[in-house]
Write a structure and sequence with these properties.
heterodimer, A: alpha/beta, Rossmann fold, four-stranded antiparallel sheet, 11 helices, 12 strands, 32% helix, B: alpha/beta
Chain lengths: 313, 232
Amino acid sequence: MNPVLEIDALSVTFCGKQAVHAVDRVSFSLGGGEVLALVGETGCGKSVIAHAVMGLLPGEAQVSGRIVFKGRDLLALSERERSAMRGKDCAIVFQDPSRALNPVHRIGRQIAEPVLIHGAGSREEAHRRAAALLERMGLSPPGNYLPLYPCQSSGGMNQRFLIAASTILDPSLVIADEPTKGLDPGRVHEVEDELVRLTGGGRTALLLITHDLAVARRIADRIAVMYAGEIVELAENDAFFDRPSHPYSRGLLQSLPEHGFVPIPGSSPSPVSPPPGCRFQARCRDGKAVCGGQHPDLVSAADGRMVRCWQCR
Amino acid sequence: MSLSADRLARAYRNGFLPGSRRTVFRDLSLTIRPGETFGLMGNSGAGKSTLGRVIAGLEPPTAGRVCFHGRDTALMNRSEYRAFRRSVQVMFQDPSAAFNPKKTIGTSYMEVLDLIGTPRPAQKAVIAGILESVGLSGELLGRYPHQISGGQSQRLALGRILLLDPEYIVLDEPTSALDVSVQAQILHLLKELQSERGIGYLFISHDEAVVRFMASRVGRIEDGRLVIEGEA
């Protein structure tokens, strides 16, 4: 089956006073019904990839490589063509629903809005679809929710409304950018269920961007770990959490509560001038001479995972 | 030498109607001792942060007393109250909002030392010592808040609090905005500082695993009441 999204050697550089290399030659593909989690710390380039796919990067961003969505290279399209796809074929769910929703409009209107913008139906039709969608999400009767304003419901509910608004046109690709950030634990599960439901039909692909490894573990099929703009490990969910390979992946899992919050020493390198060798070398316990000198490639290991490390070969 | 809340209540006016009030919590008592961490849990909106603010003296209670060293803070004279406010500090969740964006970190630090009357020539050494204990290099002092990462600014915020040599710190979701790996670093740093300096913490978080890792005693605010574990 053809992948829904195929990213090939995507690099993004922000050209300000100093060039910031936010994303460096990232490649992965994503099929229908699949969930890929991009994990890594703040500033590693996760959200930049999301914005590159959606075409939401600011003007000073230089993008190279290829982003192929359902057979079309998005980077070759005009802004007009991309705008026609945005919200219809590919949609993004932003973090912080209280800021992503418009506080002065009712929920119903905001969920129905994409239908009107993309000319997919009349006003009545749009509202009927919004009501039907809420019903399918288990929020019934929808008449109780449609007239609400964002300030009248909780963060978790608002996040579900936002997912509804992003997916009302049944896009093939949904990007969720930290969808569970700042929610109470009980609410996190509701949002997770919503995301799983999206991909249930086997048609929609989900790119989940998160730094919450517990969420990634529960709903992702594959995990891609990013560090300093690069993918350092890409593996199946079970294989990753049972046997993380890259020293950074292992460090990340060690800093989780169930492993006693063991921190990784030091901090990430500057994206302005990344070190020439392995970017994790300065913080790595297993570092050897070769690590500082030569930059490792992302290579396949025996069990099908991809790892970027000299010591894991 | 403890910090305690005695039958504390806090209510807010609800809307513009006179007499209509929303009670955040009531009849709430707890004690924090030096060198000890009290972990406070509860859902969003349960009143955790409000309790932290009341205990630190940032908001007055509607009823009940906050006692510092056994003295009711509402009855303190001016100089006692100033000492209380200096000894009980608060660290907030959002590290990017902790510093004035128009000033360098160094200037923000020096302002604190000016306030407590440390002479200018001695300030440099004091700041260097504090930065060392929070694990940062002096190079950061020349930077502006937007030029530092979340983990660094949380360390810097902690450092600025330590300039005042507090006895208690109310930590209001200190790691909720941070990544897991940085969270682990900050939690360990907080534990280290506590054992070196004997500071008492009121550690507020909705993350149960984090609270259990940090605290020796744990309580949860439910429906405006504090339920302390093991003291049913």
